[in-house]
Amino acid sequence: MTSSALAASSGIDEAQLAALSRAGEQIAPSWPLDRWIAVNPWWGMKAMTIEDAEARLRDAAGVSLTMPAAFYEEAWASGRIRPEDLRRAIALRGTALEEQALLAYLTHATRLEHAPQPTRRCASAWELAGEAAGDGLQAAGDAFDAVAESCTDYFDHHQQRWETASGETLYGHWRMQTRHDRRLSAALRRHVAALPADTAAARETLLEALALSPEALEPLAHALLLRVNGWASWCQGLAWHTPRAARHAGIDELLVVLLAWEWLGLALLEAPQRARWQAQWASSPAPQRVEREALWCWQTAFELGYQRQLSATLTARPEATPEAAQVQAAFCIDVRSERLRRHLEAASPEVDTLGVAGFFGMPITHASAGPERPLARVPGLLTPRYRTEESPPLDDRHRRRFRQEARRQSIRHAKYQALSTFTLVETTGLAWGWKLLKDSIRRPAPTPAPTTLEGPFHAYGGEPLTLEERVALARGLLDGLALGEEAAPLLVLVGHDSQSDNNPHHAGLACGACGGQGGGVNARLAARLLNDAEVRRSLAARGASLPDTTHVLAATHCTLTDRVTLLETDAVPARLGPVLARFEQALEQAGRATREERAMALGVEETGDEARLDALTRRGADWSQPRPEWGLANNAALLLAPRAVSRGLDLEGRVFLHEYDPQQDPDGRVLEALMTAPMLVASWINLQYYASVAEPSLYGAGNKLLHSVVGGHVGVIEGNSPQLRIGLPLQSLHDGTAWRHEPLRLSVVIDAPRERIEAVLERQPVVAELVHHRWLWLCRHTEAGLELHTPEGWRPLHEAARPQPLSHQVAALR
């Protein structure tokens, strides 16, 4: 229902509802753990510049989107930031601050005993009341834990002892709990009981009682949501991935709970405090302080320093592409494939690699063989249109294994029944104790035998796809692959997955393009479609044919061990047997080289590939291992270009590589698709990592060793706090001594004419907002180096501003 319709039905001022809606939209969604995808936590603020968004977040919650001054001083001292980077940053930002002033500020700020931290300008009623409330909520921060507890009880259908009433709203659940909460005074409990039971009626009552203008209501609502940011993100996410649940527990419901809680806090304030509370929301935002601009200059210089290195790498002389590759291997654009692709091409001159989104254009929901529920294998921003399912091999061994897993699943569900605490341990304790010991010392099971893949079928209705639909899927994949003039005899589609036990964040290590699942199923389905004789004939009639001599094979890349498993090789024609054998040898050699390159960063000290592979395999099976691999840590750039631009160049596993041939895209249709899909996804991943480093207390998941899973798949809490933690765990970003992820905004490098890129920006306002509001960097690849998109036009990155004199603003910075 629109805000105007809600206003008409409830009698609330439409401007007030619009203000609440705007506040809610500034909270980004989150996904369940088993479908976890990286999310830009500032997606709802993309219409603002990143600096304006930070100013609003700073006022509301004391948030900083830059690193402390000591971080940049270390980067300056080590040469990671060079003088020319700083001068370029000054010129790009058009700041009045000068080079010497920025250096002086850095020296001064890092020598302070307590470095200045952003402070929130606006406080909630509970925070103003503080310990004076005297209701058992002694610390200001604890006040909002009470709201988080209600969310935990409402959403945690697995751990709670009794089921939530059917159809009960989040607000209704909170009201029922809070009116009996003995931590509150009797007077406050009576206030709660007096609130209407209906959410809309309660909203109307609360807005009238708070008596704030729409201009004051929006920052209040946003600040309150940030106090329970994890749960706010979950409620926002329901509208994206579970719309039916959002009707009872969406962010609108949570906002009413928070307004009610703030109303209760106001009852604890004396008249002068109430006046102060009201005035702070109505006042203008605090002006941008000089030190914030200084830190943004340093952050920009830090990012330009990476671009300088990337530009130098890309202008190096790349290897020549084989004239007639025998194998084309298409990998997911995931940064972890960059190393393996580089080593694979070095291992065999007859192999050419490509980069494409890892779901291979197959938007499916897949039902695995076993008791697990079907899961979407498609980017989180897309809706699966089709479904597939697999059935296990029919031999007795596999039948026993699946029956055993079904029994285990039944016991898992039994753990969550209300009376299980009295019976389950006594009846199964010894058996599960033996299993725990066995699993802690076991090695991962060998790769299971291939299952039978059935489908695709329509997600709704279940009918098989028509020929036209199958051809459309195949055509879309071929357009994205950009195979060149002629496909190789063997085309391999390589999905990827990871292996780790006892890891709630496993989906974050799997394929983001497959909704946190492995990409092998998508690769198998895509290979089947491209090998279908009927589909090939129809493709040929449409001018997008594959040669009759080309066979398409599926594979899976394990990013933990860098082993590649080729699937259904028995269907490869005999004439391609020698090519396949050489390709398998090249994969083994590339895997060894990649493992050696990655080992030191993971602390794997074993020498020799066999020992190294064994150590990596054991990491995935170790229940106590908080960091089986580094995932996408240190991602920094997206390159949309032919492989010839980067072939043979060491990009350090930091670049998303997507194939794009500007010669085959004169109208810019393919480029537009790439800038509105892979580019947005890469930006979401990049800013999720950035936020988890820059502001880990709000946007990071905290310490893995203290995590407890909420609601089976809802998320994690840390220690005894009921606040839901989103983002990345500390162990995925920090090695205990230093950050392993450099917080950089994504540098998007495109090999295309300026006019073609600018035309996409004109047609796609969302993409234009990300570029113009500095949420990412947009660059062009040229033979002379990178060109940077700026408000004044395209500028060569190597242009340096002249050194500037000592600024009179040094004193102001101090």
From TrEMBL:
Region forming the signal peptide: none
Cofactor: Zn(2+)
Job of this protein: Part of an energy-coupled inorganic carbon pump.
Spans traversing the lipid bilayer: none
Top-rank taxon: Bacteria
Keyword terms of this UniProt record: Cell membrane, Membrane, Metal-binding, Transport, Zinc
GO cellular component: plasma membrane
Any one GO MF annotation of this record: zinc ion binding
The family this protein is said to belong to: Belongs to the inorganic carbon transporter (TC 9.A.2) DabA family.
Subunit structure: Forms a complex with DabB.
Topology within the bilayer: Peripheral membrane protein
Lineage start: Bacteria, Pseudomonadati, Pseudomonadota, Gammaproteobacteria, Oceanospirillales
Positions bound to Zn(2+): C332, D334, H496, C511
Protein name: Probable inorganic carbon transporter subunit DabA
Chief localisation class: membrane
Gene name of the record: dabA
